[in-house]
Specification:
Radius of gyration: 27 Å
Structural class: alpha+beta
Helix content: 25-40%
Number of helices: 5
Strand order of the largest sheet: 2-1-3-4
Largest sheet: 4 strands, mixed
Distance between the termini: 75 Å
Shape: elongated
Strand content: 5-15%
């Protein structure tokens, strides 16, 4: 992607992955109400410009809607899956303060993120086999270079136990 436009660094993968807010699973929708002018809404404008892309990258399951110039004071509203609404006043706050406040009230803790990452690594470890809910592969035959499942492709006669037993029996006769 060409580096054109206002602050093209915002579209780089490195910048997007630096976001620190990963919402809890209960957050479904986030609305941002802000004004394009005025001294008290400067932090909200910078939040929308710099931090919303990071939040979208880290939380792809959360719907984010922006409302410009529809309210006298900037605020954020979060809709939870239980039907609750959380209202956050962002008037006269900087974008960093807004991010910290959101992370405290609706973000996952560092311990939870670490635990989820550990579970994800254990699940997708290539040495684990089992049901797809828990493991990456169901059977050893799904590993490249291994003998395919006998249920899908018949084994060569030399590899079957019946053939070996019949050879032994004929050699004894």
């Amino acid at each position: 992607m060409p580096m054109k436009g206002r602050f093209p660094i915002r579209r780089t993968l490195q910048y997007l992955s630096q976001g620190s807010v990963v919402f809890k699973d209960t957050v479904k929708v986030m609305t941002v109400n802000y004004n394009t002018s005025g001294e008290l809404g400067e932090g909200a404008r910078r939040f929308v410009f710099f931090n919303i892309p990071q939040i979208q990258y880290k939380n792809p399951w959360v719907q984010i809607m922006m409302f410009k110039n529809m309210t006298p004071t900037p605020f954020l509203r979060f809709y939870l899956d239980s039907g609750e609404q959380v209202l956050v006043d962002v008037e006269a706050k900087s974008n960093k303060e807004i991010m910290e406040h959101i992370r405290k009230i609706l973000g996952k803790t560092e311990e939870t993120l670490r635990q989820e990452e550990l579970e994800r690594q254990q699940r997708f470890h290539p040495a684990n086999f089992g049901p797809p809910k828990y493991c990456l592969r169901e059977c050893m035959c799904q590993v490249e270079g291994q003998v395919p499942c006998p249920s899908l492709v018949p084994l060569p006669k030399e590899m079957t136990g019946k053939y070996k037993a019949s050879l032994r029996a004929s050699a004894q006769d």
